[in-house]
Amino acid sequence: MSTGTRVAGQSLPRIDAPGKVTGSAVYAADFALPGMLYGKVFRSAEPHARLVRLDTTRAASIPGVRAVVTAADAADVRYGAAVKDEPVFAADVVRYVGQPVAAVAAVTLEAAEAALAAIEAQYEPLPPVLDLAAALAPGAPLVHEGWRDYTAIPILQRDGNVCNRARIVVGDVERGWVEADHVFEQRFTTAMVHQGYTEPRAAVAAWDSSGQVTVWSNTQLPFDVQATLADILATVPSKVRIIVPGVGGGFGGKLRIGVEHFAALLARKSGRPVKVMTTSEEELVAAYPRQGTVIELKTGVTRDGRLTARQGRIYFDTGAFAGSGPGVASVATMVLAGPYRTPNLHLEGYAVYTNKTNCGSYRAPSGPQSNFAVESQMDIIADALGIDPLELRLRNIVHEGDEGPTGQVLSAVGLEECLRRAADAIGWPDRRPAPGRGKGLAIGWWTTTGGSSGVYVKINPDGSVTLNTGAVEIGTAALTGAAQVLAEALGVDLADITVISGDTFSTPFDFGAQGSRTAFAVGNACRAAAAELQRKLFELAAAHLKTDADTLELRDKHVVGPGGRVTLAELARQSQVAGGGMIAHGTFIAPGTAYDTKRVEGHAYPAFHSPSFHAHAVDLSVDAETGEVTIHRYVVAQDVGFALNPTYIEGQIEGGVAQGLGQTLSEEIVYRDGRVLNANLTDYKMPTTLDVPRIESILVEHPGRVGPFGAKGVGEPPNIEPPAAVANAIAAAVGTRITALPITAERIVRGLSRDEGDGGR
Amino acid sequence: MAKIPITLTINGEPHEALVEPDRTLLDVLRTDLGLTGTKTNCLDAECGVCTVLVDGLAVNACLYLAVVAQGRAITTIEGLASPGEGLAPAGALHPLQEAFVEHGAVQCGYCIPGMILSAKAYLDDHPRPTEAQVREALAGNLCRCTGYQKIVDAVLAAASRMAGGAVAS
Amino acid sequence: MSRFDYHQPESLADAVDLAARFGGQASFLAGGTDLIVQIERGRVAPRHVIGLGRVPGLAGIEVNGRIALGARVTHRAIEQTPALAGPLRCLVEGAEVIGGHQVRNVATIGGNLVNASPAADLVPCLLALDGVVTLVGPGGEREIPIERFLLGPNRTARRPDELVTRVDLPALPPRAATAFLKAGRRRAMEISVVCVAARLALDATLERCLEARVVLGAVAPTAVRAHAAERLLEGQPVGGEAFRRAAEAAQEACRPIDDVRASAGFRQHLVGVLVRRALDRCVERARRAA
Questions:
Q1: How is domain B4-79 classified at the CATH fold level?
Q2: Is this model's pTM higher than 0.90 or not?
Q3: Per the CB < 8 Å rule, is C260 touching A745?
Q4: Statement to judge: residues A270 and A297 lie in one domain
Q5: Distance between CA A571 and CA A569 in Å, rounded?
Q6: Mean pLDDT computed over B42-59
Q7: Which domain holds residue A496?
Q8: How far apart are CA C194 and CA C192, in angstroms?
């Protein structure tokens, strides 16, 4: 797959594997300090209420309890990525069942739990806003009476229970309806789902005598948590040190502050280190899950299947605090447009407050929901017009040089190749190979999130190389990929590189493990550092080899010149003795992507950077009597730009599809009257080994202009297309179109009997 | 009730602990004995990250009382690789550990100790499994990162190596 | 401070004595996969836990026409006993679907019976095999057919001072076969949305049903025999019409609830499908064995 590269592009084993297979790798959940206390959080029992009384005196006197904290112990600040609306602890109003109200630290977990049981809270219920319809109804109760006074990103369009309305307008959809021969309107719904990482969120906090707190945590964004925590502690970020020992999966659920503030406040009050870790129940009640949505999609087409206009509205139930909702609502409009040429667009994403847990970012936020609507409707259109679904897509997909929905110019567009290869691999056009069996396609596009990354790279006198990065390894092997880029640039082996990461004190800034950006951005920062190291190495070597710097090259752990060569180790030794050491700082930030600002409003994400393109194809059977779905084959073709490490990219595809299938077929956080009914892993049903088919990955390479060797972000996309691909295959298999996620057996059986009642379709 | 003195034989070594009878094996391993290779998550026998072997059988340590483990041979992930000889820091990895590394079966790694031990227990009894059998054996170990595919491939490869020949899949 | 005192009796008599002494304050501990979960979640709070690990004579499996299963027989042991793989196969099928192997390695049939979850998988199989439970208490031994042993969700006829010691299954009639089917939202680690255990004994022509058992799980407060369905099968030619009517009768016999796993209506629908399929499978197996 890779030609001309020695290390980058090879399927090398990840550098942190040995620690992980021997159990010696330490995760935040494993971390402990001597004398540590255990912290637990007391949470609201009401979805919307005035907190009229909170009495912690009994709790404080339980044997073993060393600290109790409430709103009085934290600075009176609100935090939040887009809207600063969230307090550490509720003080006067609680807005969701599970909202933190107080926290305790004790010598044992049992004592902490006994203390929780001894806290007395009295609530005066307020009318709860239980779902999107309730939140958007005229005269609806406000989840945030004081919403106007919150600090928010200036571009947001906020109004009452709507914490953002993002919009893309292109051309005039009214004209598009006129030009269309047919107009299709469908409504789709999706459920709230959890990232399902197997390691709970955890933090250990310890204060030192200078007023600095160190927090060991499994956050994906140490610098973001550092800043938020500094505000909460009413101090400056340099007094807050976040260290990430290891992360057991994140998928976006560990981006924002989770338990670090409770640990820090309890440690400050008790004078002892404190560990706080979430339970499975807390994860399913009070974390940062993927928003449930309602999508209304209206699309106009000519009789030969050309898209003339699309109007879409997607409503995100983002819960009691805005969280990632406003940004997610923006990204959604890009996904609703799809990678299609559509001259007229009117696309809106709404982030809406309700009295449920505040939702966040989960792998390709807004992607699966929006794509479910778009790609399902494409098949509905294809079937209605009598056009093959593959052909319909081929007639409308974007190509090199086309515009995206906000006017960005698309380059390195590998979409057609992905679509054709995926369809081919699944045996298209034989869509219905047997009774009860069908095949489905879905395509999409996604971004590689920007943000800056810095690295220090040091060559050591023993010839090894140290990569010091503020990024965090969350499991994708992104840091192995970045190290491969570095090894390639320096002419060394991957085995020569040691990675130090994730410490706000001693590693350079990194925007964080989000948006599929880490290998891309850290890899490029490594290239910058390598270029500077090369300059320094050549300067030294030129003197040593008595030649000019421009006659030198890096090869095989040496600097090689016309008359001789010298090892990197020797040059590093010389530099250490006489020059302070062979070290360089490399930085990277992706250049902005130009777009037409007039097309967007309230939009936090108006362009997809170094976009990736992908196609999924699935072949499955449906047992029409039980509704059970059996997947025979699942194929993904993904334009990755350049495959930095094919094995781990396959790993992202296989894992992303498995996670996507969970969202498609079995997972949902079920609320009734503002309470979660299934806050446990018995009834929050993630796929097991018996539920996930083998997945065939086709890595397509249309190198982009920005990423290392042309690489694009790869981690999020595989999560996007499974719901639509499966829904399309089910429709092909048994004729029933399911427009709600998850597509449970019960929904399929009900759909079938409904269709039968309609005389079949 | 007063704490009960127990001796747990872990990876062949005796470990003494003084435990209340309601403490789980998982908690004693991680908190009292500092063996954090066995992981904690759901505490409900739903996810399998706490899997250890007791007399060669895979069990969820989160629901296994430490006092019941007395007198039994417990294997944790820390016991799989052989210890280093002489000045070497580490010895040989178990074929399962090697295969997991080679096949890209490790991503975040949190499920991996439990996954490897479940696989080991199965292979020790069924040296030549099919893919379907491997999947059944690992059905009680959730992984959220990998989609299981490379884990299954690694187990089949390890089985081959351990059985000294190709294993049909 | 431990939540409970722990006892490790080394004989059946001692175990019973402890139960007599502590009564409703005590729970027996076998595999722990139900009890420890319930203690951790605060659903039960026994002051005494009586571990059965050292009590001899509770873990045996005897097969000689009749089957005797000790209460501490694990699901794994059932899976691995060849003698149970033939006509008694539903027992293996019910055992092999619960949890992962970590649970099956320690979870026992006694524990499963006493826990009496309405959705238990093994219980319908034991009921379809006319299982009889033996209990030992201070007053001696008594036997109760499983149908009368199950009283409601997590409630049985066991008195607090009694220990379940074994389950006896009478010998199967000739030309009998069994099957167990389950429906859920995923293929492993699943609490049944509906499960069905069926048993048919065929006549010498293998065309007619002589005797039937149809047991439904997860659709009533306990596992239930669909007696009306069974009566509709006895003496009838197998397949087709008789199976369809039996499936309908089974649907009428169930009292499912709406819960987060499924609606009552869907459960009822699945009962019809699974009963018919389980009966078909019994016929297939009886004919193949003959």
A1: Ubiquitin-like (UB roll) (3.10.20)
A2: yes
A3: no
A4: no
A5: 5
A6: 97
A7: 17-25+450-588
A8: 5
